[in-house]
Amino acid sequence: MDLKEVAILGENEGRHWYYASKGRALLQLLKGLNVETVLDIGAGSGVFSRQLLDAGICRRAVCVDPAYRAESIERHNDREIRFARAPDKGPADIVLMMDVLEHVDDDVALLRGSTARLRPQDQVVITVPAFQFLWSGHDEFLEHRRRYTRRQLEAVVRAAGLEPVKSGYFFGLLFPFAAIQRLLGNWRRKSGAGPTKSALSTQGKAVNSLLIAVHDLERRVVFPFNRLAGLTVYCLARRLG
Length: 241
Known about the structure:
alpha/beta; eight-stranded mixed sheet
């Protein structure tokens, strides 16, 4: 996650509907795995690594983000999370790249370098923002370079020497509402009235719980089959043998 959004959402970002729902989708993709180490590139606060640790999918997490002021180690439910500005040379069983590739000019090179330590059949989970026509002040605030379609993300994955296993879209139920909102926002910005800021904000407890429930329903019913539209593109990939 982006550290800019940590500043907006505060220390409880893991309870925010967006990160809670995306984390549950991540756990569904990795269901049944039990590995030693997850390498979380562009981890921000480490919210997704903590979710994997809580679910028992990994026993240790290495969170990497060049924006960290200092390196540190902490314990989360008696399991280690190491925060580092750059990856070490140790092994990793799963690589997470949650909303990272859109921040760099050469997404293929970053993905290839970040997954080079994986062994054949080890897995990587990638998420990126969907559809260039949804470009808005949210992307400019977060310093994105681009948004992706599912096929564009798969092309990047293959170019980096990985094999796509499963890909699709999430936040599909919000897609039409968000699309209208962002297109209207872009029209206002062209008129000089729209701000450049993150689209995420804190919600009241009732609204936040409702949005989590809505996306739990999407995750159970639509998520496994959605290849059409959503606000996020995901790809579960593996290292080629």
